[in-house]
Design a protein that fits this description.
globular; 2 domains; 14 helices; mainly alpha; DNA polymerase, domain 1; about 290 residues
Amino acid sequence: MTPLRRRMLDEMELRNFTDDTKKNYVNAVSQLARYFDKCPSKINQEELRRYLLHLRTERRVANSTYTFHLCALRFFYTHTLKRRTFVETIPFPKGESKLPVVLSREEVSRFLGALHSLKYRVIFMLAYGAGLRVSEVITLRVTDIDSERMLVHVRKGKGNKDRNVMLSPQLLEVLRTYWQAARPVDFLFPSRGQSGHLSRVSVFNATKKAMQEAGIRKNVSPHTLRHSFATHLLESGTDLRTIQVLLGHRSIRTTAIYTTVSEQTVRATTSPLDELPGPVAPSSLQ
């Protein structure tokens, strides 16, 4: 490991970054270095701008991907190299207002029914039944399933925050069946070599395969089940604050997006036209 990488990792450790964030930030800086084929500490400000333009105009990465790269590079130049002026004038892209993809309850049932592996069925039942992120599911440990209190303990979720979510009785039954078959010792979903946990790539591949088999044509990722969890709770009458806590959102404004994708909420909202006094519809049109 180079001294420069070690210094960057140390700076992230001081700020209590998650292991995934550390890995992804280092990878973003490595991509910059490979693009110019030289140490990132020797890349000047104009070259940095050229690389960011390359991401936008040639690779045409999504806004979220570009923003992540920019955050990683801002951190590297600001905190590792102490060159804040390199990046402080580079603007973040204007935010997009895209609604999350949500499955209907019938589509969730079809998707779960298309999973022939007990392990992956449990993984996606956790994602949908408890609203967990992929990273939270695959890092669950056996001891995080609390059958006495009917809770799932999420350790070091996004922002390194712990939280508890509900454990569905149906999910608990399937978890017990899975445990009897797989006998996991530490991680609930261990890797093939038993030295760590299952990879995100494996979960994404299983998602794609099951969606194809279920005949669902939406642009779906494992995170779609978390979106569906929140939307279906809202449609069932769960208040927004409770959903915020279950999802582990820092701000309720993040959770509020689900009010825009809930079809039942939209349909149940009365139009002000219907509340006007007196008859407004003409008896006949001229």
